Amino acid sequence: MNVRRWVMPVVAVAALVVIAAAPGLLSPFMVQFVINLFMLAILAESWNIIGGFAGYASFGNVAFFGLGAYTTGILITKAGWTLAMALAAAAVVPMLFAALVGLPILRLKGHYFAIATLGVAETMREVVYNVEVTGAGTGLVMPIARTPALFFYLMLAILVAVTLVNAWLAHSRFGYGLVAIREDEDAAAAMGIDTTRYKTIAFAISGAFAGITGGVFAYWITFIDPDAVFRVIVTIQMIIMAVFGGAGTVAGPLLGALVLASVSELLSTQLVALAELFNGLIVILVVLFMPKGLLEVVKAGRGSFRVMARNLREYRV
Amino acid sequence: MLLLQVLINGLLLGGLYGIMALGMSLIWGVMNIVNVAHGALIMLGAYLTFWMFYLWGLDPFVSLPLTIASLFVYGYCLQRWVLNLVVRAQLFLTLLITFGVEVVMINVARLLWSSDLRQVAPSYAAANFEVGELTIPWVRLWVFATTLVLSLVFLVVLEHTRLGRAIRATSEELRAARLTGIPVAHIYAVTFGLGAALAGAAGGLWGMLFPITPVMGGSLTLKSFVVAVLGGLGTMLGAIVGGLVLGLAESFTATYLGPTYPNAISFGLLVLILILRPTGILGRKT
After folding, report:
1. Residue in B with minimal Cα distance to A271
2. Is A136's Cβ below 8 Å from some Cβ in B?
3. Residue A279 CA: distances (Å) to CA of A234, B46, B178
4. Cβ separation of A287 and B97 shorter than 8 Å?
């Protein structure tokens, strides 16, 4: 146990050094792919905070992503802010927004919460479509920055930050509080956990990370419109990557993002619809065979087939 | 007079929302599954009707029984061999798996039929009749009448047949139902089949009024959910009343605020009802 305590951080730092050298070594195409991979991993980890630890399955986190993208876009093109300032705003605005909508909708449970978050995202898209300052349906064109390395390091930095937050949740009083809420909210409240405050803070942190990532995405992709940044499929990706790897764990969402983004990328070179179809099939198979994530199955080693068979039988009627 | 026209438009559309929500409410009430693929089932019904019209020249009203039967079989199989495997799991998992089903259905439709807008336009599509200053499109009136007939048939089946009693018994207490000899897995599948059939009927009718695409289902799922909650979960009559309320709300806001916020309106209604009357319009206090 003692050895593992310091081995993991050392491996992580070594891996980071290798990754940090990557933009110089990889082909431009691969750099773009890795930026995208980082982005999906961040989103999966950020969803994990509210959906995995606190157990509130948000189906509308793309609202924060899109809000961050538009915050950055508007501040840079209309107000002439610098990228750094705009990105800071892209974290703060969605964070406040998440706290604000979180107060009422986090009182809802289960299905009601899921659909309410879906509704928030859809409503955001419609509002953006109809407001002048966002460029309405035509979208916003950003100044072009042809420096892939910048986006690579920005995404990497955010990914490290969000992973550290998840690691902190796994070992902190606050994180234990969220898990207690997930397992039994009434019991958690009875133990003296201020559930409303915990849930709202978790939702806000989740929103802040999704938002700043949306900001980087906007500047990277240079053109945003409502359909590009409020796509429901982005929410689906966050959820399945987290669930595929193992929701409520630190490494799970990273693993899920790595596996699924790679396969997805291979398929979308053929056809986008094919890649999305694959996403859907994965969702179905994951729910049937490994609802607790890939990590649980992998950990079982030789018994992994038995674990999957047990999962399949567990909830049938 | 405009007011009356808006009222009629809303009611005529509301009938469609009613049968959509009826299917959703049934599946939700009996199996505690919020079927996110509901909109995709509506989409499938719309496309079946479209192809039968386009390839064989079948009138959409004539082909409706075929659409309904196909969707019933599809829904039955989906529940029997896929959803029944997870039906007792936590809500998140059943929600997620229907999400997966939706994504698969939408993208299969995109691959097979492309993302083009299509419309079922029989020769009488533009025919109107006038009462005083009111203009009423024949198609909308017939669609409305069909939804009422279907709802009525469905309510009778659920309330007054052996099958309906079995469904309601299973809904109330799974274990007790099984002990009395009800084949629960089969009843679940039939229930989902009925829900899918209603969705398919709604889709077939929808295609006569609006263009259809593979992604048309997303906002319809949201609307079905809102209506089911609005009317009171598990009350079938409530779903129909809720549908009419949503139809009216959309019709009035489209006339007086502009047609640009359809989803925002259903979502606003949802939040309002959850705050003001969590049991729905016709729901009972638990």
Report:
1. B111
2. no
3. 11, 24, 36
4. yes
